[in-house]
Automatic annotation (TrEMBL):
Residues 384-658 form the EML-like second beta-propeller domain. It comes from the Eukaryota. The keyword Repeat applies. Pfam families: Beta-prop_EML_2. This is Cilia and flagella associated protein 57. Residues 241-271 are annotated as: Disordered. One of its GO terms (cellular component) is sperm flagellum. The keyword Translocase does not apply. Keywords: Coiled coil, Repeat, WD repeat. Residues 253-271 have a biased composition (Polar residues). Residues 685-942, 971-1047, 1089-1141 form a coiled coil. It comes from Gallus gallus.
Length: 1238
């Protein structure tokens, strides 16, 4: 085996869709499904441990922990067949105890697991197509019972044992709720399902008989012994206002960072969604359930055996995201309480883990609380990029969940996280750790890693960049643009070089140690070495049968390690493959090499990691570790060779410690020192310094206020203490008097009590004597009865002994008779056996003689055949020698001809290949030219649009700055105000109500106009129908005229024979006379039709004009509505500011009044008792000046009057606008319609 080992140090990822996917092993130790198996996390000490799964495991499907927290049951998905394994958690590390399988049970996925209360039995529910419930005695690997679950729409969601009964099991799913009891080797159903079947998503045992169930329609059902006891509909919960306001504020920030349009993923979902109880968990006071995305409700039991909602707990708003969506849109799939019920942990559909500390007392509870992350926000989709920094212990990852995260692999913490509008395909860290490159679908972005944020510094026009990398010196970076590698400068951001030559998609780009060369691989099996000074290829190795996915360089940059679709690890040097290591039926997806060059790590499509020494082994000499549940997409070794970092399609990240075979950490020749500096924006520093100054001023003001308040409190407390002392002395005296009175009463009661005791003692003695005499007589009587019964029992015993003796004698006789009888039979059978053995001996002798004769005959025949075939062999050998000579001559001729053919074929193939290559190059160049032209046109258009947008934004910025200056000036004026403005606020509110009423009237008029339009449209439809009928009549008349002409032509043929002519004319008259009358009537009605057509055209013209007018009115109404809304918003803001200032003014007035009272008291004290002390504080001197206070009040009254005048002017200006506040003129459609009819 190899000397190198890897041990998992940290796991950041959570597997979704696991039944019982999170549980507590101890008070602060959480177990959850991560990667291909399970992870343990300590909430205080923050360490991780990993429990690996079986070989070729594709992830965990279900988990269950016994009540004693000693055993863990795991259901895994594997390539060959699903596995059900039980682990012992008390061992260190946890060891595999049993693997359960049975011939009676087909190999299917186990979707739900549960241990019995004593941990001896294990219930397992399998998934479709045939859902079954199995009961195991797992320690003996024995299947006790199996029952098939029959339902309309089968789908098992959960299985559990009763908390007190090992034989009672509950199973719920889509369309069924069943209780089973194990007895006599079978599982029997003990409940009858009544009512309509529900989709039961979850359940929990509240007691030995009570079960709470949650459905997909938001209903809670409480069953007692299988019968429905209580039912409740849970309403859909909307997130609290704090989360909504926070996300709206983030929306404005994000629009300036990243361009793009938001997806309509969550639009309107809050209103249209229905409640759904996705998870339930019981605890001592009641139960917890999740009824809506992002919320957990706590229910507690009341005195009336009913459960009442006590608290809401919401998922926190994601502080890292810039996208305006709620993290609360995650469905909660699992809820778990700690053993002491102090901590609540949940898992969600977006691979996140949250925890909540339960309040220790009822008075600490809040109506709505918030969760916090168990460790950090995790990736919820496939990880597409990973890169390690040289100067800092950080690693950057990006994912299809549109996020970029920066982790610290030394402290196992998340340092930075940010979500964007597009999916991130690749990420690269600058060697200093202060910048990074991220490839998106539309651009490549150069991002500054600030202290608490990521700032987009520069955009590059590289679409769908799937690979990028910084040079080791940090002065250059490479980005893949289609089939071209573009080299940019990190100082000037200019495109210094373009490396062209790849025909397939480029999957990896690596730099040499001195940054003079660059290495790349693609999907067409090409590995190239590029010289950056010339921009040309120096080395190439092409294998068209292999699709390369990753490459890694040796420390000397002369050896390339490549992996791809051909299931081998290749060692390439000097344009050729020197060595290949097979993967043994697995595809290698990623490769990494240590900086020392003696360790090679490979990631597979099954999610496993393999470590091996360099030079590469010839046989299967490597260590394999089970880690991820999906293919490993990226892996890298840190600069000090102490950590291996892997990322996978399952969204999980593993930090591995690289150790020697004995578990010791590898030592380097030089210890590596990491940098600690960080970036921060100048604006951030200025803001923080401003806030610090404001806070310092505020602290000083608060100190002065506190000192003043403390003095007031001291004085009031001193007065209260005096009053309390007086009351206390009075109460003491009254209590002493009461005590003396009570003491006298106590002495009297004690004397009476002693007299009563003596009387009771005498009575008790007499009663005791009487009872003793009675009991003695009863004892004598009972003793006599006992002696009589004893004599009877002795007699009975003697009789039974005699009967037993007789029975024993009869038994002995029968046994002797039976032994004699069976001995005779044995003798007879032994004689028969001896005779049969003699017959067998005789038959064996005869058989051996026959066998000998047959063998002799066969030997003779074999010898004859042997002689015959030897003669034939000699003859054939002679003929073969002759033929060989002839064949040798022919072979020589053939070889010469084949050589000539091969040479000519090779020449032809070389010419064809050259022709194909040239044609391919020409086509690719033509495509590149066309693509570049289109890209240039698109980019010029986008640049022009963005320049316009930037110019508009600058203008808006200037206007906003002016507005800000005006607002700052007004705020300073408002801060000086003291007295109330409630009357003005009420007037403003009345105006707002009037505006809202007018808006409602406008909406009503709009609806009336829409109704009129629909009526006109119906009239148009009616006229269209009449037109259709008239056209049909016209066609009918034309057909009738044609027939009449034909009949008339036939009558003209009888012009010589008048009788026939007469008969024909009569037929024509009878046939067509009525139709002709109809035609004449129609000729009369033509004038009416023309009049009708004129009126119709007139109506259509009026309708078009009305439509245009309606559209214009709608536009005017919309503009007025937006204007009113903007004014309302500004007015509400002013009202809020005024209210805040009002409260401040009230407090200040109160303080001033109290200060005035104090000064008056002090002056009175100074007049009565002269003192030598002088007032030191300037605040007290100011308070004594009543004139100054009166001046301030007069100034404030003038300011209030000025503001009232301004409000009235604004109100008059709003009333003067007819479009905003006046009613629109009604359209008199009925009158115009009557005119058209006349």
């Amino acid at each position: 085996m190899s000397v190198v080992e890897a041990q998992p140090a940290a796991v950041f990822g959570c597997r979704p869709g696991v039944s019982g996917g999170i549980c507590f092993l101890e008070e602060q130790l959480v177990l959850y499904a991560a990667g291909a198996a399970c992870a343990q996390f300590h909430t205080e000490q923050r360490w991780h441990k990993f429990i690996p799964g079986r070989e070729k495991s594709r992830g965990v499907r279900a988990l269950a922990v016994s009540r004693s927290r000693r055993y863990l049951a795991v259901s895994e998905m594997a390539e060959e067949e699903p596995a059900l394994t039980v682990y012992e958690l008390t061992a260190e590390p946890p060891r595999r105890r049993r693997t359960l399988s049975a011939a009676e049970l087909p190999a299917r996925e186990t979707v739900a697991l549960a241990f019995s209360p004593d941990g001896r039995y294990l219930a397992a529910a399998t998934g479709p197509p045939e859902a079954q419930l199995a009961l195991w005695l797992w320690e003996k690997q024995r299947l006790l019972a199996v029952v098939r679950l029959e339902a309309a729409d089968i789908g098992v969601c959960q299985v559990s044992f009763s908390p007190q009964d090992n034989a009672q099991v509950c199973v719920t799913g889509n369309g069924f709720f069943k209780l089973f009891k194990y007895s006599e080797g079978t599982l029997k159903q003990i409940n009858l399902q009544k009512g309509e079947p529900q989709n039961y998503l979850c359940h929990a045992w509240l007691s030995e008989e009570e079960i709470i169930c949650g459905t997909a329609t938001g209903k809670l059902f409480l069953f007692e012994s299988g019968e429905l006891l209580w039912q409740r509909d849970v309403e859909y919960r909307k997130p609290p206002k704090e989360l909504e306001e926070g996300t709206r504020a983030k929306d404005y920030v994000s629009s300036s960072d990243v361009s793009g349009e938001p997806t309509s993923e969550d639009s309107g979902s809050l209103q249209d969604s229905l409640p759904q109880i996705s998870a339930v968990a019981a605890y001592s006071k009641g139960f917890a359930c999740s009824s809506s995305p992002g919320v957990v409700l706590l229910f507690e039991k009341t005195n009336k055996e009913v459960y009442k909602e006590s608290q809401e707990i919401w998922l926190p708003r994601d502080l890292f995201t810039t996208v305006p969506k709620l993290s609360g849109r995650q469905d909660i799939t699992c809820i778990c309480f700690s053993p002491s019920e102090e901590v609540l942990v949940v898992s969600t559909t977006k691979n996140q883990l949250y925890m909540f500390t339960m309040p220790s007392a009822d008075y600490l509870k809040e109506e709505s609380s918030h969760f916090e992350y168990l460790h950090f926000p995790l990736h919820s989709a496939s990880i597409t990029g990973l890169d390690v920094c040289i100067r800092r212990p950080i690693v950057a990852t990006c994912s299809l969940d549109k996020s970029v995260r920066v982790w610290n692999y030394k402290t196992n913490t998340l340092e930075l996280c940010k979500e964007f509008w597009e999916e991130a395909y690749t990420v690269a860290l600058h060697p200093t750790g202060l910048f990074c490159l991220v490839g998106f679908s539309d651009k490549l972005r150069f991002i500054s890693l600030l202290y608490e944020d990521m700032h987009v510094f520069k955009d590059f026009p590289v679409r769908e960049c799937r690979e990028c990398s910084f040079s080791n010196g940090g002065h250059l970076f490479a980005a893949v643009n289609g089939n071209v590698i573009q080299i940019y400068s990190c100082t000037t951001f200019e495109n210094t070089n373009n490396l062209k030559g790849h025909s397939g998609k480029i999957h990896a780009v690596k730099w040499s140690a001195d940054d003079s060369k660059c290495f790349s691989c693609d999907t067409h099996g090409a590995v190239y070495e590029w010289n950056l000074s010339t921009g040309k290829r120096e080395m190439e190795c092409v294998l068209t049968s292999c699709i390369y996915s990753s490459i890694a360089l040796h420390s000397d940059s002369k050896i390339i390690f490549a992996v791809g679709s051909d299931q081998t690890l290749k060692e390439i040097s000097e344009s050729s493959v020197h060595h290949e290591v097979p993967a043994f039926d697995v595809v290698y997806t990623a490769v990494a090499v240590s900086h020392s060059g003696d360790m090679v790590f490979v990631g597979t499509s099954l999610g496993t990691v393999r470590s091996m020494k360099y030079p590469l082994p010839l046989c299967r000499d490597f260590n394999e570790y089970q880690a991820h549940a999906g293919a490993i997409t990226k892996m890298s070794v840190t600069n000090d060779d102490l950590f291996l970092l892997t990322a996978s399609e399952d969204g999980s990240i593993f930090f591995w410690k690289v150790c020697s075979k004995k578990g010791k950490i590898l030592k380097r020749e030089k210890e590596f020192e990491y940098a600690e500096e960080v970036l921060i924006m100048k604006s951030d520093i200025e803001e923080k310094s401003r806030t610090i100054l404001d806070l310092q001023i505020r602290v000083k003001e608060l100190q002065i206020e506190n000192d003043y308040q403390l003095r007031l409190k001291d004085m009031s407390c001193y007065e209260k203490i005096k009053e309390l002392e007086e009351t206390f002395t009075q109460e003491l005296e009254s209590l002493k008097n009461k005590h003396q009175i009570l003491q006298a009463e106590k002495d009297n009661q004690e004397m009476q009590h002693q007299l009563q005791l003596s009387e009771l003692m005498n009575k008790h003695a007499k009663e005791m004597r009487d009872l003793e005499s009675d009991s003695n007589q009863k004892l004598l009587m009972e003793n006599e009865k006992y002696q009589e019964l004893q004599v009877d029992s002795q007699r009975m015993q003697e009789e039974y002994e005699k009967q037993l003796h007789n029975l024993q004698e009869s038994k002995n006789r029968t046994v002797e008779e039976l032994t004699d009888y069976y001995e005779e039979k044995l003798n007879e059978k032994s004689l028969l056996l001896e005779e049969a053995e003699e017959d067998m001996r005789q038959q064996l002798q005869a058989h051996e003689e026959i066998k000998k004769q047959i063998e002799e005959d066969e030997d003779r025949e074999i010898q004859d055949i042997k002689i015959k075939y030897e003669r034939w062999l000699i003859e054939e050998k002679e003929s073969n020698l002759q033929l060989k000579g002839e064949i040798g001559v022919m072979n020589k001729r053939l070889n010469s001809l084949q050589k000539e053919l091969k040479e000519r074929n090779n020449d032809i193939e070389d010419m064809k290949l050259e022709q194909q290559n040239l044609q391919g190059i020409i086509k690719s160049l033509e495509k590149d030219i066309s693509m570049l032209n289109t890209n240039i046109e698109k980019r010029t258009n986008t640049i022009q649009e963005k320049e316009k947008h930037i110019y508009d934004l600058k203008k808006k910025n200037q206007e906003l700055e002016k507005f800000k200056f005006v607002l700052d000036h007004r705020i300073e004026q408002f801060k000086k105000q003291i007295e109330s403005r409630e009357n003005d606020i009420k007037i403003m509110q009345k105006q707002i109500h009037e505006m809202e009423r007018e808006l409602e009237q406008l909406h009503k008029e709009n609806t009336q106009l829409k109704l009129n339009i629909t009526q006109l449209q119906q009239k148009l439809k009616a006229t269209d129908n009449e037109l259709h009928k008239e056209r049909q009549k016209k066609q009918n008349m034309e057909a009738l005229i044609k027939r009449f002409k034909m009949d008339l032509h036939n009558c003209v043929g009888f012009i010589q024979d008048y009788k026939k002519l007469k008969a024909g004319i009569r037929e024509l008259y009878t046939k067509y006379v009525q139709q002709l009358e109809m035609v004449e009537m129609e000729e009369v009605d033509t004038d009416l039709q023309q009049e009708y057509m004129r009126q119709r055209e007139y109506l259509e013209r009026n309708l078009a004009a009305l439509k245009k007018k309606v559209v214009k009115d709608q536009e005017v109404h919309q503009a007025a509505y937006t204007r009113i809304m903007q004014e309302n918003v500004s007015l509400i803001k002013e009202i809020n500011d005024l209210r805040q200032e009002l409260t401040v003014a009230h407090t200040q007035v109160h303080d001033l009044q109290s200060a005035l009272k104090l000064t008056k008291k002090k002056q009175a004290i100074q007049d009565t008792a002269p003192s030598n002390e002088t007032l030191s504080s300037p605040a007290v001197l100011r308070l004594n000046a009543q004139k100054e206070n009166e001046k301030i009040i007069e100034m404030q009254l003038l300011e209030i009057q000025h503001l009232r005048d301004q409000v009235q002017e604004k109100g008059q200006g709003l009333e003067a606008q007819p479009l905003l506040y006046g009613m629109l003129p009604k359209l008199n459609l009925e009158r115009s319609h009557k005119m058209h009819q006349h």
